[in-house]
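To whoever is covering the structure queue this week,

Two jobs came back overnight. Logging them here so there's a record in the thread.

Job A:
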Amino acid sequence: MSYGQTPAAHGGSVAFDRAAGYYDQTRGLPPEVAERIADQIDRVTGVGSRLLEIGVGTGRISLPLHRRGRPMVGIDLSAPMLGQYRAKAAAERLPAPAVMRADAIRLPFEDRSFGGVIEVHVLHLIPGWREALAEVHRVIAPGGVLVTARRLWERREGRGPRSMARLRHRAILTEWGLRPARIGVRGEDDLVGALTAIGGRIEELESVSWQEAETWAENLEILERRVWSEAWRVPEDPWQEAVRRLRADLREEGVDLQAPILVDRHVDLAAIRF
């Protein structure tokens, strides 16, 4: 697979066509974690309500709900990502998921169509994220709920090689004046403020936590492959030069690149009721 191409985009939003083949290996959740997230969504939305997930991708969040027979629809900009979701459902002999290629800032649904909407790690990829929230608000029925991921990067990524490799690599690029600008929602305060402004009442949900073993070696290799979406907006040569410098710095510091390190990770969700 080539990693030098420009990312697919739609109206400035980032589509993950190029990531479809490796998305689940780099962003996937352990099965028991995905089920615990589904439990929380069931609890706050009610098991009979019709759901929409924006940025459904390969079904990372929706597939466990689809297995439970939840009535739901998913939209995504990337046809290859949706193809991966369909293939996974078919492999489990599940009915084909109701998914379509669509833009979150122009949802192709009638007003008040859904009892709940799911958004997990998507709004940072959408320049018009406030428009997307307005669309979410429009399609949620009275008394419905938006289940969204909180913007707590350190808790989500942990403090191990996965997060530290990205942070240190980003620091090198910033030193060279090459840090890519953020295109979507910037953080927790921005999101909370926008949700409150459109009448949302925010309820924090119990954190879903787990541990994973990571190594510096595997995460340097992930950086070299330009897997993360922030890589797609930086030229190839300086990106790779920054990886080489980081690798040299770690060796100079005496870091064992192959040693597994156990890292705490979390998915923190909130329910916003309208």
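Job B:
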Amino acid sequence: MSAPPSAGPSGESAVDLSGVKAPILYAGSAPFIKFSPDGGSFAFYPNGRMAVAFEKMGAGYYVFFYADNAEGTTLCAFDPFGCGYAAFANGKPRLTSRKQGGVYIDQPTGGKIAKSWSTSKPLREPIEFDLTDRIAFKFKNRTYIWARFTSQGLSHEYEFGELQQMAEDSYLSKSIGTVQMGPERGKKILDIDKVRLAQAANKARREAAGGMKELDGAKKGMITQDYMQLLPELKSVVASTEALQASVASGAWNVEVFNAKQTLIDTLSEQLPTLSMSLEMDPGSKRLEGMPATDPETLKKMLEASKFDGAVLPLSAAIKGASGRFRPDHGNHYRTPRKRLRELKSTTYDDYLKSMPKEQLAVVCCMAGWLPQCRRVEPVLELVNGENAGGGGGGGGGGGGAQARFQLLKFDMSESRYLKERYNISTLPMYLMYLGGKLAYAGSTLNGFGTGKDDLKKQVDKTLADAQRGAFLPDDYKFGATDNNLVSSFGATLNSTSTKLATAAR
């Protein structure tokens, strides 16, 4: 059912009501709810008083619920951004909602805050209560508010709050594909018509936000009757429910929203460039002829998958001739000078030492991976091992050159207590040097006081010379509580000179 256009008080043509939903009537033909051309509506009590005003402004709705009394007490008022309040029967606030959060009060007089929420701590469960015996109310958040008005067996539900299209809308929703090849590979291809329509819708929402700011000069997010009184043109509307009803009848609340594509074109004119990025492109919608994407064949090629196999591209002559890592003499022939030490096990320890060449000195480095001192010295030992293996051909992995004078080996003290119990080792790293399976040196210092690479080589030369002339440590050699090779040598010197000192004393 549609109503014909009606004339206003001055004889001017009113808003065209064709296509508007037919009103719902009570049993006695009194209106229960009337609908507006823009999707809004007005509900009434059986006695004719206004019960609900659900009116569209901009891109959202202003919602007001009124009590069935002569004063027309406002029980609920919310703006298109979900900001507003719900009240007790006496008009005192019961629930308030702002952009930053809100509160819920449990009693109409002397009540306390039962619940509060904010943007960072939203409500876990929605709040539900009855504004009156005819109006049910539910609040989940600013984006979802629900109410139901029931009277004489008739019922109508309302869903309102902040529209989230502008917040959720993104360029991904306007994408028709992804560029699969070329320097723009991976970028989205957008439908410009959809972008423009979204911009128009967002503009309408911003205009609605501007209207709310005019209504709310103090930058408050809650619409009340007191705030509405700030605008002179609204004073007649909120003075009484009868005045509000009269303004609805006169068409003062009809607001036209331009969001159709044709209206957008008429408003912005045909001269503005627009481009419909679609495989089934309408030739009439193409603009900007110089853009490659306006050609359907070019667009089709852009959407094709890349045939690149992922293989490494050959280096150009310019890159090869450049300095740094792309020098032409750089290749896979490079090897690190470091070489890992061969690790000995307790079960084959003595057998391996005896199997070594008789002229080659075995240097066993007693290590523990958890000890920082050992972790610092191990790279140095690996460097010496690499130099020794490359230069002399020995060292546990050399080439075909002459036999190396020594071989660096490793024993993990964390894995076995074999050497600890055998030599009473209490300091790490510890160096044990053997020739022909016999111990020729034992100490935690090298060359008398050092632990560096040169100290190791000098200690190897000295120990090898001593062992070749038969200077070995005893077979049952063990460290004392604070003993090492330096202390042992000093003790031997004292023992050899004590008899001479005693003779001289006599």
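Note for Job B: The chain has 13 helices and 21 strands.

Please reply-all if you pick these up so we don't duplicate work.
Q.
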